[in-house]
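Thread title: Can someone regenerate the structure for this chain?

I was given the following input by a collaborator and told the matching structure tokens would be attached. They weren't. Posting the sequence so someone can regenerate them.
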Amino acid sequence: MRIAYLDCFSGISGDMFLGALVDVGVPFELFENTVAALHVGAALKRSRVNRSGIAATKIDVVVDGIKDMPREEFWSDEKTHNAMARQQSHGRHLSSIVKIIAAAPITDSAKHKAITIFTALGEAEAKIHNTDIEKVHFHEVGAADAIVDIVCAAVGAERLQVEQIVASPLNVGGGTVKCSHGDLPIPAPATLELLRGIPIYSGEVQKELVTPTGAAIARTLVSEFAPRPAMTTEKIGYGAGHRDFAGHPNVVRLAVGETAELRIGGNSLDASGTDEVVILESNLDDLNPQVIGYVADRLLSAGALDVFTTAVQMKKSRPGTVLSVLAPPSLEARLRDIVFSETSTLGIRTRREHRHVLARRHVTVRTAWGDVRVKIGSFNGGDSNAAPEYEDCRRIAAEQRVPLKNVMEEALRLYLDEKNG
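Best answer:
Regenerated them for you:
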């Protein structure tokens, strides 16, 4: 399985993640074009910096000629504070941010991930301030720099073409941070809310190492927080933070490669090709079908292995829907929270089951329109099933304006020709 592993020994922020993506090979021009298309008055600047002996890529978001900076520096620098305050004076609510993202010329899956990240931010802010999510007035997290960070994070993660992003436990730092509400403990309340259920710790550096934007990105894009899995590393990238701490490299490290053992949804398979999954089910008879589709997308983005629905007839002869979620056991609590918060259900059934899974590997075929990965399932020592990766084919179809079915058929033909060849 092709995965990416995030080493968050110095936390994570949006710009650090973008720097690591560029350093590992995601084209900087992709981000530049994405930012220009957002029309939020922002631009990107790329540079190479050194953080305690490690060379890294630094990405700065420049809004109205002013760079983003750590929060306490932002609020203590009067000139910058006043200029940015004017830029943010009207603020943005979630609905306006969603409209900006929805209008962007990026893939539907990237749009969904970006909206999910901002929704997570809004939910955390709403809970901390005891208000409705649509009444949350985004300040630091709603500024143009955060929109840029989040949309580019979604676009860049998709371009990695990995099946899973795994991350280490997060070093959140310590001390206090200055913001619009005054001095807050680290991690800031909204950040800690976003990190609920995620392993975190505080090291020697007593500064804010995980920002709200970084926490929301990690919560949405990372499917598992665990020690580094056995993997063959192909690419390594370092994304730099703003500060340069003495004796502590303020970077996030991103490694991309193939797992050395088969891992499905965060679980290592044993020799018999089985793993354990949790199944969450809920009966719904009073929920708008449009909401069910949205919930399914959120669950898949949060790491569910599969989400499906079954039409049923419930009590009082009412038509209903059974929502079923297949997931790694480590994600049970997170996915259960999504079902409770997004649907009208009053209860969720859960059970553990074992499944038999074919060993999987990838080969890449080169079509006339671009490279496509083909997933191959092996049975009894031979290749039995092969299917082109949908996301690769969808991206090429959209970029090259070619029918999706043609791309999929051509990729499978090239694989079979090579196999039989």
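The chain has three domains: 2-261, 274-356, 359-420.
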